[in-house]
Amino acid sequence: MKKLYYFDYNATTPLHSEVLDAMMPYLKDRYGNPSSSHIFGRETRAAVEKAREMVAKILGADPSEIVFTSCGSESNNLALKGLFSAHCKAKNHIITSSIEHPAILSTCSFLEESGYKVTYLPVDGNGRISLSKLKESITEKTLLISIMHGNNEIGVLQPIAEIGEIAREKEVFFHTDAVQTTGKIHIDVNQIKVDLLSLSAHKFYGPKGIGALYIRKGTEMHSIIHGGHQEKNRRAGTENVAGIAGLGMACEIAMRDMDKEFKHLITLKEKLCNGLMKKIPKIRINCSFENCMPNTLNVGFLAIEGESLLINLDLKGIAVSTGSACSSGSVEPSHVLKAIGVPVEYIQGSIRFSIGRFTTSEDTDYLFEVLPPIVERLRSMSPLWDDKQ
Ligand SMILES: *Cc1c(COP(=O)(O)O)cnc(C)c1O
């Protein structure tokens, strides 16, 4: 089989072998329902509670504050709908940003259709919100601020500790979508003063189909999935035991390896960025190194269609992404790149490279060998490309 080169870790990550090992017993012999009182149920209950401790630990939370969900999208839905539902219409205003993941933006549109008010904060050229604009937007009707931690497309990190400070001072709830940062960057829910935090296992070497929502003790929430009494009535449905065990192990591995991984990623990202700038003219780096995830590099190539570039790289066994993973296939330029003001000549030809623990220096060397001639060829065929540029 031809070797493949994966530069799309923000879409999803491979399962870590230790995670698979932790899951296997619950896919085979240990099939009990954790709600059952017999031995079969007790052993899977123990696995669920052990994993809950690990998730709590990586966030600096208490295990009772962790609710397992089916994915990051569900965690985001639960955070917003569950909170608003519990607080009726006394407060009907939410503040978010214009560069959130679709799981937040679509939930906000849904809430707007139901009569809630949403403020979408703009961002600067690096993708950061303005704290003074945030303060100005808070009214006596504001129930929640939902601002993501790390952006999936450009990697920008928001000043969440400062946002948490403002939310606490104004007595507004604060939710953060930390799906991209959990397991990659240190998070302490008490230090950032967050009330709700979403995470998802498959973005940090865990399995797909399992996520969690941190809910600060005392936060009144309604369930959005009704049924049995699982998760202390906060999320009905028989637990995905193997997935939960996998998420727990993914957290353990992340806590053990985070610092080492961070160095590995930032070194490779720098190499990737410098290499591309050296080898290919007329490119634009759509992200920064400051306040940015160590694994995400978004690059605009002048006068090229991102989709053509993606397909040509795919033919060479290299996987990248244009726009967000969830909207690829659509030709609408990414809402994130628009929000940070990427010029039109670069926006269509923007590619996200996202690396991870299994990316090697040789992978980037292969990219440096393959990419420049593709770019040159596509540009030579492009009506937007002028040789004199
Ligand atoms: C991937 C992602 C999600 C959605 O998580 P799923 O588990 O795939 O539903 C939400 N927010 C961000 C920032 C993401 O990157």
**CATH A-level architecture of the largest domain:** 3-Layer(aba) Sandwich
Largest sheet: 7 strands, mixed
Examine the coordinates and then state which fold CATH places here, giving the name of the CATH topology of the largest domain. Answer: Aspartate Aminotransferase, domain 2
Radius of gyration: 22 Å
Strand fraction equals 5-15%
Tally of helical runs: 11
Question: What general form does the structure show?
Answer: globular
Question: What is the count of distinct domains?
Answer: 2
State the strand order across the main sheet. Answer: 2-8-7-6-5-3-4
User: Unreliable segments (pLDDT under 50, ≥5 consecutive)?
Assistant: none
**Structural class computed from helices and strand pairing:** alpha/beta
**CATH class group of the largest domain:** Alpha Beta
For the termini, the CA-CA separation is 40 Å
Mean pLDDT: 95
What pattern of helices and strands is seen along the backbone? EHHEHEHEHEHEEEHEEHEHHEH
Fourth-level CATH superfamily of the largest domain:
Type I PLP-dependent aspartate aminotransferase-like (Major domain)
Helix content: 25-40%
The strand count comes to: 12
Small molecules bound: pyridoxal-5'-phosphate
Chain-wise SSE layout:
Elements: E1 5-6, H1 17-27, H2 39-59, E2 66-69, H3 72-86, E3 93-97, H4 102-113, E4 117-121, H5 131-137, E5 142-146, H6 160-170, E6 173-177, E7 196-200, E8 211-215, H7 241-279, E9 283-285, E10 296-301, H8 306-315, E11 318-319, H9 335-339, H10 344-347, E12 350-354, H11 361-380
Parallel strand pairs: 1-11, 3-4, 3-5, 5-6, 6-7
Antiparallel strand pairs: 2-8, 7-8, 9-10, 10-12
Helix pairs in contact: 1-7, 2-7, 3-4, 7-11, 8-11
